[in-house]
Specification:
single chain, 223 residues, alpha+beta, FAD/NAD(P)-binding domain, 4-stranded parallel β-sheet, 4-stranded antiparallel β-sheet, 5 helices, 15 strands, globular, FAD-dependent monooxygenase, FAD/NAD-bd_sf, FAD-dep_Monooxygenase_BioMet, monooxygenase activity
């Protein structure tokens, strides 16, 4: 099928990659259906830093990079970025985001591609994109000889702690308002701020600004 005839896109996976891809395609004129296996609750347990500098002069890229990064280079909770992207998706008339939809198989022929859910519902489009993680159903279909991503040899422990429980001497030294890395032979300790119960930034002790009450700690231990 000629490229200029493509109209409807199916995206398997509705986390950061799937949401960003859906927004980019919708703003390029496509109708998009995003299929996410999880419910609508936001993901916990990770944080990420997004670069604000675009790689090209594309207006869509600049808009989406600013949306995802919130205009800064700080480390943010995965859930905060995900929430912004979902809010943007909800305002796009060309995007349908469907939760609680576990895809069990995908396929294609000369005219279309499709995804089949656990409930045997078929979602058909002009083409299909896999954004469904390291155990990707789409990857398994396209590359059955290597269906999963390779294990890189790292083990990650994730936890979170109330800021009031942290030693006062560590607040300014570690600059927890952005990110802190402490490398050793045992591994790497990384901290960053995540939204707390209220979800609004507050002025913390020693003049540091935190986005809520909780700090997420990630310990990456070499295997």
């Amino acid at each position: 099928m000629p490229q200029n005839k493509f109209e409807h896109v199916i995206i398997v996976g509705g986390s950061l990659g799937g949401l960003m891809m859906g927004l980019a395609l919708s703003r390029s004129g496509y109708t998009v259906t995003i299929l996410e296996r999880a419910d609508s609750s936001l993901r916990n347990g990770a944080f990420i830093r997004l670069q604000t500098k675009p790689y090209s002069n594309s207006e869509i890229e600049r808009e989406l990079r600013h949306l995802a990064s919130n205009g800064n280079n700080n480390v943010e909770a995965w859930s905060a970025i995900q929430e912004r992207l979902r809010n943007a998706v909800a305002k796009e008339p060309g995007i349908t985001l469907q939760h609680n939809t576990r895809i069990v198989s995908v396929g294609q022929n000369e005219s279309s591609a499709w995804a089949t859910s656990e409930e045997e519902q078929i979602f058909k489009g002009d083409f299909l994109i896999g954004a469904d993680g390291y155990r990707s159903i789409v990857r398994r279909y396209l590359n059955p000889d290597k269906p999963f991503a390779d294990y890189a040899g790292y083990l990650v422990w994730v936890g979170k702690v109330d800021e009031e429980l942290l030693p006062k001497k560590d607040w300014k030294k570690r600059q927890l308002s952005s990110a802190y890395f402490n490398d050793s032979a045992a591994g790497t300790l990384t901290t960053a701020v995540m939204p707390g119960i209220e979800g609004e930034p507050i002025l913390a002790r020693d003049g540091l600004v935190f986005a809520g009450l909780i700090i997420r700690i990630i310990i990456c231990c070499l295997n």
